[in-house]
C-alpha cells in the first residue's frame, strides 16, 4: 500500500450514446424529491463503482453558498439532496463531492488533507464563490499557497457571448469585444482573483463546452436542458499501486 492523497475524476458521458449503464441517471439534475428517488440509486452505483460509498451534491442556485461536510453533517447531506448551495468542502476520506455543469465552471480545490469543489457560472463568479472557498479553507487553517486548483471544461471566451447590459453590470474588465459582440472570460477572472489571494498552482482543462466536441460536452447554450456533467472530487488515504 502506498500513501496517495487524492483521487480526482471528471466524468463526461457521451451524448447520444446508446450505451446504458446502471448509473445512467447519475448525471440528471434533481429539482424535486421525486426526481431524487429516481437518481439516488444511480449515483450510489456510480460512486460504488469507483470505490466511494457516498456522493454529496447540492441543489445548485448560482449562489455563493458553500457548505462544509463533516462526519456529523454527512448523513444530513445524504438525506437532503435539495440543500441549496454551490460549493462543498471536506476533510473526510471516501466520499465524493460533486457539482453539475453544462457551460458553467467546475472548480476543484485540494490540499494535503482537504478537498473542495465549486459550481460557478457568471453569477457565481461575480459573487466570487471561488474566492469564498479559499477564504473558508484559510479560516480553517489551510493556507492558500498550499491549495491547488483545477478549472474544468466550461463555455470559454471564444463562445460566451453576453449582452451590453451584462457588461454594464459587471464591467468590461474581463470582456472581449469582437465583431460588435461582447464575450466574457470568466476563467481569467477566477485565475486572477485566486492568484491575488495567494493560490500559486492553478491549472485548467482547456476545452470549451460550446464549440468543443458535442459528443463529449453538455452545453446548456447549445440546447441541453436535462443532463449535466457530474464533476466530482474525492480523496483516499491509501490506494494500492
Ligand atoms: Zn468555444
CATH architecture designation:
4-Layer Sandwich
Q: Give, in spatial order, the strands making up the sheet with the most strands.
A: 4-5-8-7-9-13
Work out the strand percent: 25-35%
Q: What gyration radius follows from the Cα positions, in whole Å?
A: 18 Å
* CATH class designation: Alpha Beta
Largest sheet features: 6 strands, mixed
| Count of separate DSSP helical elements | 6
Q: What ligands are attached or bound here?
A: zinc ion
Descriptive notes:
This protein has helices spanning 33-49, 74-79, 122-126, 129-139, 164-170, 186-196, and strands spanning 2-3, 7-11, 54-56, 66-69, 87-90, 95-101, 105-110, 115-120, 148-151, 161-162, 175-178, 181-184, 201-204, 229-234, 238-239. With 241 residues, the chain is of the alpha+beta class. The strands form four sheets. The chain has a six-stranded mixed sheet with strand order 4-5-8-7-9-13. A hairpin with a 2-residue loop joins strand 11 and strand 12. It is globular, with a radius of gyration of 18 Å. The termini are close together. The protein binds zinc ion (ZN).
Top keywords for this entry?
disordered N terminus; 241 residues; single chain; alpha+beta; binds zinc ion; 6 helices; 24% helix; 26% strand; CNF1/YfiH-like putative cysteine hydrolases
